[in-house]
Amino acid sequence: MYVIAHKTDKVMTCAEALEKVFDYIDNSTIPELTSEIEAHITQCLNCHERFEFEQLLKARINRAAKLHAPEQLKQQIERLIAARS
Ligand SMILES: [Zn+2]
Description:
Blueprint: E1 3-5, E2 11-13, H1 14-25, H2 31-43, H3 45-67, H4 70-84
Antiparallel strand pairs: 1-2
Helix pairs in contact: 1-2, 1-3, 2-3
The structure holds zinc ion (ZN).
């Protein structure tokens, strides 16, 4: 576990950073916290890798959700039903 000291003598631990990283990815952190998280993940390789992984994962989930959008699925089902009758 790494502890990174900041210029402002506030310290964000890895546990705190990882706890907030999901909010950060969702853009739902307050600006103050955003800069703290950014400062941590640029200095801490551990958290940086984790952050990149989570970001990639989220992008993949979003893409998968778009590919299997409910509307598209509905149309597919309707087409299948139409083909059967
Ligand atoms: Zn860290």
